[in-house]
Amino acid sequence: MAQQTVEIFRIKSDSQAVKVATSITKSVAQGNAISMRVIGAAALNEAVKAAIIAGQFMNKGVTMRPAFEDVEIDERTRTAIILDLTIEADASNDEIKPYPIQNINKSKDVITA
User: Fold this and answer.
1) Predicted confidence (pLDDT) at residue 13 exceeds the cutoff of 80
2) Nearest-angstrom CA–CA distance, 49 and 102
């Protein structure tokens, strides 16, 4: 059995989620596994949006497994978040139901648990 190639995406705060999602979709179609590397809240936001959009493009569920990794940037140690993506079964399956965007409540109510 051939080993699967892991495509590593380095996501920045100014990355465009739709463009990243398109690249993820193409890479998955080629049989690659996906891993995203991010540093910072804005980059993490773009990465999560890209994964969600890619799942919608492929009509499949996407699971993100997070991990941390220390990286050296300009002689400083920074903590990167690694998101390994797992592409799930067909989203038309009864087990996976994407939440329709039009049903999101846009009110300013705060919900507490």
Assistant:
1) yes
2) 16
CATH number at residue 37: 3.30.110.20
**Lookup: tokens for 104:** 């999101």
Cα 108–chain centre separation: 26
Express each pLDDT in 46-76 by its tens digit: 999 999 999 998 888 889 999 999 999 899 9
Q: Is residue 108 part of a domain?
A: no
Count of C-beta atoms within a 10 Å radius of residue 82: 17
At residue 61, what is the residue type? G
Of 71, 69, 51, which Cα lies nearest the Cα of 61?
51
Q: How many domains does the chain have?
A: 1
